[in-house]
């Protein structure tokens, strides 16, 4: 459609109902439209990118001199932990999910995602994660200080003695984020497997779709481990269990397995969609078809598979054979 006058205002766009004045309100609604949700993801994640960037600048500002003159060590550790957490769980993952939400149904000729309401629920859990993390700045003891990896026994220390402390809010946030992303993964994998337009075989899908498919398979298999680990650590902190507390017979190394089983493959959850974006953009601007479509498509899946079996390289300095008997 070309120029559509509504109330004397000319609007240029392909469909008028997406562009009419006052439509910005839909971005604050529980919309189930994958394009709206995609933009909601992109805008929300960009806001948190700025928040995480401010934390980074405070960290670098403190590091300008050897003394602790800008912030004390407690605030520094909190900033360090929050910077990593915000940048991963509230910027990189949701921003790429935003691109995928907007583009994948269009690229495979689907009307929407397979589960539009699940899609909306998954998105609205992202601000909940943000509120949980940011509110920890306003409670006694401040935010979690154990780093974005939250290894016990450091993460089991609770200097304030309060049941609700920064680490508890952090673990709740990671658990909610995990559930949100698992919902997203179920949705993407189902959409790509079941909702392709007639005639679009797997090897006719755009490479961005292959990349998102591979990344979301990682989410589907890896994230339950991190989410379970976070919930178990939460139970250790609040309900008296001892899964990971060495002082009470728990095994802190187990947490590192739960954590890295997901968090190594997580780097491919980030890079695979970006590879996919490269694979779409380079052929356009070089005006040549992509060389080796099938190789790129299959290697995306192989990256997902191989990424699932290498996590122990993060913890090899533990001397696992001695500690983990
Ligand atoms: Cu790794």
Say which CATH homologous superfamily is assigned: Cytochrome c oxidase-like, subunit I domain
Largest sheet: 2 strands, antiparallel
Average residue pLDDT: 90
CATH class: Mainly Alpha
Overall number of strands: 2
What value does the Rg take, in angstroms? 22 Å
CATH architecture descriptor text: Up-down Bundle
Distance between the termini: 68 Å
Side-by-side strand order of the widest sheet:
1-2
Describe the structure in your own words.
The chain is mostly helical. It has a single domain (31-323), classed as Cytochrome c oxidase-like, subunit I domain (Cytochrome C Oxidase, Chain A, Up-down Bundle). It contains 9 helices and 2 strands, in the order ββααααααααα. The chain has helices at residues 34-62, 73-108, 116-135, 166-194, 207-238, 252-263, 266-286, 293-307, 320-323; strands at 4-6, 9-11. Strands 1-2 form a two-stranded antiparallel sheet. Helix 2 packs across helix 7. Residues 264, 313-314 line the site of copper (II) ion.
């Amino acid at each position: 459609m070309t120029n559509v006058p509504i109330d004397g205002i000319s609007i240029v766009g392909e469909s008028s109902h997406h562009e009419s004045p006052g439509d910005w309100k839909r971005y604050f609604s529980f919309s189930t439209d994958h394009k709206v949700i995609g933009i909601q993801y992109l805008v929300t994640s960009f806001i948190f990118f700025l928040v995480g960037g401010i934390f980074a600048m405070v960290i670098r500002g403190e590091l300008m001199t050897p003394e602790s003159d800008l912030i004390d060590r407690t605030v520094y550790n909190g900033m360090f932990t929050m910077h990593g957490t915000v940048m991963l769980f509230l910027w990189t993952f949701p921003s790429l999910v935003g691109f995928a939400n907007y583009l994948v149904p269009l690229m495979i000729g689907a009307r929407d995602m397979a589960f539009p309401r699940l899609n909306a629920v998954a998105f609205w859990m992202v601000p909940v994660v943000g509120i949980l993390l940011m509110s920890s700045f306003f409670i006694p003891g401040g935010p979690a200080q154990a780093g974005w990896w939250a290894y016990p026994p450091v993460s089991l220390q609770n200097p304030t003695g309060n049941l609700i402390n920064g680490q508890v809010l952090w673990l709740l946030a990671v658990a909610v984020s995990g559930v949100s992303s698992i919902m997203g993964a179920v949705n993407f994998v189902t959409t790509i497997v079941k909702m392709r337009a007639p005639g679009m075989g797997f090897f006719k899908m755009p490479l961005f779709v292959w990349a998102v498919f591979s990344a979301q398979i990682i989410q589907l298999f890896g994230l339950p481990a991190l989410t379970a680990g976070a919930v178990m650590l939460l139970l250790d902190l609040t309900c008296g269990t001892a899964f990971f507390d060495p002082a009470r017979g728990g095994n802190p190394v187990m947490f590192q397995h739960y954590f890295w089983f997901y968090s190594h493959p997580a780097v491919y959850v980030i890079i695979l969609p970006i590879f996919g974006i490269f694979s779409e953009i380079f052929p356009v601007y070089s005006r040549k078809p992509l060389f080796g479509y099938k190789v790129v498509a299959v290697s995306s899946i192989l990256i997902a598979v191989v990424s699932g079996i290498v996590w122990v390289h993060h913890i090899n300095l533990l001397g696992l054979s001695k500690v983990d008997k």
